[in-house]
């Protein structure tokens, strides 16, 4: 009986070790939920921290909500460089008040984005454009939606393509048509 309990303990330990190694690898390829929104709100939070410390150093009154709202505008005007970030800013700027209230109470950016997602689901559907490296891109790891966009950018149609493998094959065939934007 003691031998079987030891074996069971060893098996459980091995299973947990394998799970600990494989779990981060499985999530590495998947984009995080509301990733762009979270990144922008983290930049806003960083700006607000700087403003808060400056106000404390100067012994001035600090209004967190107005500082957050002005930081949202600043981040969207100055830091939003990619098309996806600009699109997320388009959704964020009208709801600055809904961002400033929870952020002033130290709610994390990912929770604020999830809360905003309930009212505006398209906020979290915005994703960065897929970067293609000619000859090095693994098309099998991309979503079908991204594969279709790649083919459309190349001006190629995939008539009769139903399965992901067909889109991957067509992307590989037309890889020489890829141009950097």
From TrEMBL:
GO terms for cellular component: extracellular region. Residues 137-173 form the ARMET C-terminal domain. It is found in: Secreted. InterPro entries: ARMET-like (IPR045333), ARMET_C (IPR019345), ARMET_N (IPR045332), SAP_dom_sf (IPR036361). Pfam families: ARMET_C (PF10208), ARMET_N (PF20145). Keywords: Disulfide bond, Secreted, Signal. Residues 33-127 form the ARMET N-terminal domain. Residues 1-28 form the signal peptide. Belongs to the ARMET family. This is Mesencephalic astrocyte-derived neurotrophic factor homolog. It comes from Hondaea fermentalgiana.
